[in-house]
Amino acid sequence: MFRSVRHMIYDLIEWRSQILSGTLPQDELKELKKKVTAKIDYGNRILDLDLVVRDEDGNILDPEQTSTISLFRAHEIASKQVEERLQEEKSQKQNIDINRQAKFAATPSFALFVNLKNVVCKIGEDAEVLMSLYDPLESKFISENYLVRWSSCGLPKDIDRLHNLRAVFTDLGSKDLKREKISFVCQIVRVGRMELRDNNTRKLTSGLRRPFGVAGTSGR
């Protein structure tokens, strides 16, 4: 609603400048004034404000000098014009949605670009960070995992890839775009001892993978 009203206000500001310029011929000036009043009446309608009754030239009718029947008829005409404009806008929006869906259906695949900046999580040991796409309604992952090995120092184990941890989830087709929800899931797997507090050297283990944490964000 805000974007629609903002766009209409920008149009009104531009048209007002053209009217005040005094350079328009009389016929163009008359048509422009009609466009202005039609835009104002349309904006009032979608904002649930009062409908202003006007004459053929766009001037507001004076109820003190206009009969009740004339006011009623002018109100009927104005209401009909606004309703026609609303139906026209609705039809145009539906056509845009249909064209967008047809475009998506005709496009073979899409891709999602991911840039990993940092992992802010106190783990205490080395870890594996796995990122993937998940369909919560079907309860299944719809992509492979993007794996980043993270050291206990809080940096990538492959230090050459620092600030260059990027991945692209490819082959997302129209079926994936039609899913009601798609979640981006990040899993953290700790790699090390069985227990972080295992100080007994006889029981000390290493290289074991244990689930540590998970996070996700949901979108359409």
TrEMBL record:
InterPro entries, per database record: DOCK, DOCK_N, DOCK_N_sub1
Limits of the Dedicator of cytokinesis N-terminal domain: 2-205
Protein name: DOCK1 protein
Organism encoding this protein: Orthonyx spaldingii
GO MF annotation terms: guanyl-nucleotide exchange factor activity; small GTPase binding
Keywords: Coiled coil
Coiled coil residues, start to end: 72-99
PANTHER family, alphabetized: DEDICATOR OF CYTOKINESIS, DEDICATOR OF CYTOKINESIS PROTEIN 1
